[in-house]
Amino acid sequence: MASGATKVPVYSPNDLKSTTDDALVPYLSTLPQPYTFKQDHTKTNIRFLIGYSAVAIAAFTFYADRKLGWEATQSPWVIAAVVSYFTLNSLLTYWVWAVEASEVFRGTRKSGESISIRSSVKKHTPLYKLHVQYKSASGSVLQEKDIEAPFTVWFAGDGTFHPEPLRSWLAKEIEVLRLAAAETEKKTGGVASVVGVEEAESKGGKGGKKRR
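User: That's the sequence. What structure does it adopt?
Assistant: Structure tokens below.
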């Protein structure tokens, strides 16, 4: 196994899915310009805010119970805190299942186009499924489709993850990524299509100035 290669249990769909999900962010964030997507963390930040607020309230009520005694927990402000805790937990559950809804990447290009990718694993099958929605800067849908492929396309028999087959599959299925792959190949001559244009250019710069 190559140094630094990721290896996961081949019979664990959750591990296969998580590793694949995690590979989407560096790929989409390092595409050649003008196709690079800047990840939008708004939904994740809101989830963290709700979750941490609920934890803070739980810690406060625990302190009130342990340090101030049972009588203090009967006060209106403690009861309000408990109600707030359960309300926030309900909101967090709704946010995760209805708002984020398995979204693993949301990003925007400098030109305003945005992409949303949601992932899932088909029950009882080793299939990785994505729902992709690509929109223009004005919000109109340019491409929306469901795609799926077996994990064996990018995982070896011993569980070693190979990102290039995953990227090739995505580029074949998603139009904007196909254009980005073509741009990468044009800029690098196909030498660094799996590692990105920036790395190829940095390596080329070590050899001296470019010829004009």
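The longest strand covers residues 141-150.
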